[in-house]
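ok trying this again, last paste got cut off
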Amino acid sequence: MHFIDYIPAIKGKDKWLTGNGKETNFFLKETKCKHCDANDYAMEFIDKLQELREAYDNPIKILSGCRCKYYNDLIGGSKTSAHIPDPLARAADIYVPERDIKKVYMLAISYNFNGIGLYLSGHGTKFLHIDLKKRKTSPLYWKKLPYSWYKYTTDPIKNYIEYEKEAKEYG
């Protein structure tokens, strides 16, 4: 770990602040754990999340932010999930309109998120996972559709093409 890994993000009155004190578009309430209200993020992640939002120039909805270990286990999250503050969370599951999934996926790549997952829920909702987790294979991309195993790759374009094909077949 590097020193920057331990710098906590700054909490404003209602919203996260960037490292330079600028208010972000993200409310504290949308990133907190749904079980215990844990909400400890790395500043590096919040700053990059805001950069992604500004580049996209449209709202990004946080579906799942910080998670305590109990809640993460309850929903079947990875034991080493970047959503868990250990010591600080570095991940979020985000929603944008389906027409913009590819655009935000490509922006996340360009903004150097080193873990990017494409998901399709059992209800047919497409969403993305983005993180700054420290991992041996980085960057890492994956896709997860209902009733299937995770499929990992280091090729972001192949990942997206296969995701779209499989999502179309599923739906």
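PB: full thing came through this time. Strands lie at 10-11, 15-17, 23-27, 61-64, 91-95, 115-120, 126-131, 140-144, 151-153.
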